[in-house]
## 1
Amino acid sequence: MLHRIPRFLARNLAGDKRTKIAFLLIDGLALDQWITLRNVLKELDSRLQFRESAVFAWVPTLTSVSRQAAFAGKPPMFFPTNIRTTDRESNLWAQFWAEQGLSANDIAYIRGLGNEISSKHYEVLKQDRLRVAGLVVDKIDRIMHGMQLGAAGMHNQIWQWTKQGFMRDLLSILIDSGFRVYITSDHGNIEAKGIGCPNEGVTAELRGGRVRIYSDPSLRTKCKMSFPDSLEWPSIGLPEDYYALIAPSRAAFIRKDDVIVSHGGISIEEVIAPFIEVERA
């Protein structure tokens, strides 16, 4: 699972003081969309090589749950106060590596990537002392939340974005700086059709298309009565006051028959994330 990745990286780091690792998380990238991205990268730089595998995301497949678990190196139950926001994600990343014996100067975390690599980010990644860098590329997640053309539109937009060269340039900087580069995602996404939007005011803490989150299980059960095919997800590994109601297969809690691209549920596309080691021949 995603929260196991930092420990895998730590084992690779422990054997050699000269090893540097870049953990590149592309927010919202589904496994099939990785194939589109990979094929364009190969066109842009034929020297790139990919060792491909996959990991399971956390359910519900939300950024604040699954992405934070990936950077914390722990299940979500261990960061209950941060489960509804990613504002302290950098602290979770730094805390994990501090527990592995690294100092603050050895650790970097950069988020909001996807359009260009600023001089500030370039300088951070070029620091000689840097041992681990956690990077968040959120461009695909932003494409997804504005997508009106379904799954086909997602692939087209990812193809066009990758063609612009940001990912190629970022990988080049990391590899040229001596990093071992690993790519993953916090969750995927699917095209889903609306089954109606629950009329419950502010009862739900999070009112996503594929999942709704409650702090009280009785409120979740009440909503399920209106959507009997929805799934009350067991809170294993989640904070005690975090109760998820998952929309049925390829359905969404939005206006009936509307179509969106979303995440939060338990489809294969949402739950299985790519895990890739990148090298250059």
Note: Residues 192 and 251 are 5 Å apart (CA to CA).
## 2
Amino acid sequence: MKPGALLSVLACAFAAVIWAANGDDNLVPPRREVYGNGRIFDISHRYQPEMPEWESNDGIGQFLWLPKSMKNGSLANNSEMKFPTHTGTHVDAPGHVFDHYFHAGFDVDTLDLDILNGPAMLVDVPRDSNITAQVMKSLNIPRGVIRVLFRTLNTDRRLMFQKEWDSSYVGFTADGAKWLVENTDIKLVGIDYLSVASYDYLIPSHLVFLKDRISLYKPD
């Protein structure tokens, strides 16, 4: 490319940036789910007031404020956010259900990024059951697989797109969690609602997973 042509391209790009910065009612922010020709899939949910909150029928409500706004004369826009850490797409820290882990500082930043990043197996769970030991055995997940995303009836029911919390969601029973820990190499468990554990086995299933510091990713 000739220098003149390069300068023309740069000038056009600069003009486009200036035009965008000056504001345009038709600007649409890009929101992609697939990157690098399928190398990375973003399966996180966008935070919005109507997304479900644990044991609430009102969703998370307002969670974003703009105390400093350029429209009101501030030099920059500065936002404040407030919502429970157990909201939307999140991972559970080991201290979530173990107080000694909590006070020892086992926060999410102590989780292994090598476990949290990499290829994952997507598994469809039978739609008529929670994830029990029997279900886990029937899935025939091979040894060596360390990241599994469990797609359940929650996805079919689009529970993450309903404002009202639903206690009938699908999750792991205690024996299902125990079977996974004892019979697979899985270190990351992903599921498609606010809890990896079914409501009737809420704490027992978490205790099984987090005792061995299995990373729990939800919702996918």
Note: The helical segments are 3-21, 99-104, 113-116, 133-139, 153-156, 174-183, 202-211.
## 3
Amino acid sequence: MTKYRAILGLLFFFIAVATFAQGNFHKGVLHLNKGKAKEVYIEIDFEFPQRFQQGITYMEPKDFDKYMKTGKMKGKMKQKMEPKHFEGFSLEDGREFKTVWYADLTGKAIKMIPKRMTLEQVAEGPINVYKLYSRTTGKINQELADVFFEDRANLVNYIQDNFQLLVLKDKKNPTNVVQINLLNYIGDNPRVKENYDNNQYGLRNQFSDGFKMGKYVNKEFEAAFLRMIDDYNQESTTDSEARSR
């Protein structure tokens, strides 16, 4: 009886693992270089953000269908691709990821050489905004290490609520939001600047004494910042369309 229970336990374990793995693959369109594109299923696992930011793992639709039917993953079903081979990807749930060059200048050991990464894009227009999630292998900060090793159940929540927000306008590469002069980005729009000064976006609240930004921000900061950026982008796009008529 004990033997059968052990077998059943292992069976349920493997089923759970397979179900979890299936849930990590998201249907989308991979935008290759030279304007080419193809439908694929891309792995998005927030326990290991580096696996979709520094390269992707994906499955062709026919292989994904086989995997869903059998629950068996053969080696050749999963394919990998580096960011240098594609411009980004769009997921069916609406999320967009773009390949950009970024040099992290926020740490003590400044890395001056930009690195090609594929990041989630959360604002598009004259001002583009991207999210860079923390890697969970290699050299990581102490707070993340504590969560990773001591509170694994909350790891994904921590990663999704502690990230770098990168901003790009009139430059080749994006900059961490903590390092920008905000007036250089929104100062040419008096209405948006006045709204910011009057805290209509709720962004000024995020700079209170109790808020420790470091190089990371949270979802609350992101929401307030994007309210301002979306307002700026929308007006800039409207003005541009009016001038082109």
Note: The helical segments are 2-23, 50-53, 61-70, 142-150, 155-160, 183-186, 190-197, 219-244.
